[in-house]
Amino acid sequence: MTFYDFEAQKLNGENASMSEYKGKTVVVVNTASKCGLTPQYEGLEKLYQHYKDQGLVILGFPCNQFANQESGTSDEIQEFCQLNYGVSFPMFEKIEVNGKNAHPLFKFLKSKLSGGILGSKIKWNFTKFVIDGNGQPVKRFAPTTSPEKMEKIIRQTLQK
Questions:
Q1: Is the dihedral of CA 119, 121, 125, 131 positive or negative?
Q2: Domain 3-158: which CATH class?
């Protein structure tokens, strides 16, 4: 099983297959609009703008499982991201990342890349996963890791 075997709903309601991103380096991140880490949207957008022509795509998955920091509707989330951070990378409908209702994509990513001594559970908003052009997860980054600190692994993955 690879990343490409999954689907998710975009914020606009369209169903998207992850196979649309075959051959690209993908960063999957669970996001929230009212989190102390929300300014990471800016760094994620900068990475996207800098590397998208080389094959990088960033996929944002809003999640309200952490202190109700993403309580908005799909339209509110879209508007917030565009107005405040100029987000142009694909954003998806709100999902759960932990527990029995966790989205299958996040179950897969967590099974492939654990989160250190506390296991595979997502600890907070802005946990980031890098997937290579073959659909294999290659690196997991903690919520507090800035997007800029992912640049080295993104460059390496783009070159493969």
A1: positive
A2: alpha beta
